[in-house]
Amino acid sequence: MPKINLHKRDYLVNIDQDVTLTEFDSKLSPKYHATARKVNRSPYLTEKNVNYRWGVLNNIDAKLQLLDSHTHAQMESYSKNIEFFIGTLKMPVGTAGPLRVNGLFAQGDYQVPLATTEAALVASYNRGSNLITASGGASAMLLNEGVTRTPGFAFKSLVQAGKFVAWLVTQFDHFKQLAESTTDHGKLNDISVNIEGNHVYLVFEYLTGDASGQNMVTIATNVVFDYILSTTPVEPDYAFLDGNLSGDKKANSQTLRSVRGKKVTAEILIPASLVAKYLHTTPKKMAQFGQMTTVGGALSGTIGINAHYANALAALYIACGQDAACVAESAIGMTRMEETEEGDLYASVTLPNLMIGTVGGGTSLPSQKACLDLLGLHGSGKSQALAEVAAALCLAGELSIVGAFCAGHFSNAHHKLAR
To answer: What is this structure's pTM?
Structure first.
């Protein structure tokens, strides 16, 4: 037996020794006895419903932490963002900066709020931000925008699928009118068609203004979807509002060459002297690290090449009221680091999938709005700037973590700050 399987074998052997066959049956079989009193009767946020839930939960210490007096006074603010409300969760928030961004939309020095429980994370982004600012700031450019929803239709044959598509491509103007009737801000920008045998996938691409837009595009596409089903001359065997081609909340490779959300790139040229001062290493060594980890990423089958975009985006999304689950797709992207002919460091990041907004969703909740206000980026007309700040933040994190590995400081920093 290969050594790689020994742990799995031993684990199963230990289970077999600790649990008898009778206990296996008892533990894993369905249970049909009566449930405890239900905590959740109505999903709505009212004083009566909140009091009922805590009456069932019956945990005073937990209630004091989750439904403190400040939360209780503000709880109506959360009514459109959560069901079965029982309180709020406090997370530590730190700031990284100043982070200088020279973007098409973001201009200035930003203190970036990051909500996390991971020690050493904010310190790392702060170091990278200070290095970027000392180097004159990161250039950042919003490249494209678009949010997708992808209905899927199944037919009996390819012939039927082809007839359906032939009808469908004549309907774009009407589809656009229907979709845009559901929103004041969303615009249906394009519909592309993908045929796979007797299946047809439609990719509806929208511009969503300053909102992240997932709910907006779902509602708009649903109106068109219902219209298609009621009027198509070729009836599908079955159809669904989303056929999983959009990449919503999933790591996917298609947006590396296109866009979902906001596509942004950022770059920086850093003198070797500043690399030595802030990161205690050299541009050559950082470029070598990039080469080795690019091959390692390819060997592991990773989508995109970056060190840890997810750290920056998760902390920023939580702090600023974004949909944190979108980190699964937003953290796809490419980092490059090269030594220039002069011996300095060129570094860039490209993030094609930033699901980010400054209106709607959780952006107007009290704490989250406060974080956006710290950035000066809450409200209409600010989402493009927030996307450029997010890209520059990711660049700061890439510089800091790569520098830490190259200088041999990565483990030491976590040992010092996390313990």
So the answer is: 0.90
CB–CB of 368/319 below 8 Å?
yes
Question: What residues does 125 pair with on adjacent strands?
Answer: none
The pairing of strands 107-115 and 187-196 is unpaired
Angle of helix 272-279 relative to helix 283-300, nearest 10 degrees, comes to: 70
Comparing C-alpha atoms, which of 6, 82, 22, 92 is closest to residue 49?
A: 82
217, 204 Cβ separation under 8 angstroms: yes
Instruction: Tell me the fold of 151-240.
Output: Alpha-Beta Plaits (3.30.70)
Is 351 strand, coil or helix?
strand
Positions annotated as catalytic residues are: 118, 323, 414
Residues 6+ apart with CB under 8 A from 174: 227
Sign of CA dihedral 214, 215, 217, 222: positive
Contact 372, 321 (CB under 8 A): yes
371: nearest Cα among 75, 87, 110, 77: 110
In the chain, where the domains are located? 3-78, 93-144+264-418, 151-240
Contact 264, 390 (CB under 8 A): yes
Secondary structure of 311-328 in HEC code, one letter for each residue = HHHHHHHHHCCCCHHHHH
**What is the per-residue pLDDT across 369-399, written as a single tens digit (0 to 9) for each?**
999 999 999 999 999 999 999 999 999 999 9
Residues 217, 322: Cα–Cα separation, whole Å: 16
The torsion region of residue 408 among left (phi > 0), alpha (psi -120 to 50) and beta comes to left
Exposed/middle/buried for residue 23 (C-beta within 10 Å: 0-12, 13-18, 19+)? exposed
d(CA 101, CA 112): 12
| Structure confidence by residue, pLDDT tens digits, 30-89 | 989 888 888 888 999 999 999 999 999 999 999 999 999 999 999 999 999 999 999 999
Class of the 93-144+264-418 domain? Answer: alpha beta
DSSP 121-175: HHHHHHHHHHHHHHTT-EEEEEEEEEEEE--EEE-SSHHHHHHHHHHHTT-HHHH
* Residue linked to tokens 């990423």: 297
Asked if residue 216 lies in contact with residue 183, where contact means CB atoms within 8 angstroms, the answer is yes
